[in-house]
Amino acid sequence: MTVEALIIFLLIGAIAGWLAGQVVKGHGFGLIGNIVVGIVGAFLAGWLFPRLGLNLGLPGIVGEILFAAIGAIILLFLIGLIKRA
Question: pTM for the full model?
Answer without folding.
Answer: 0.80
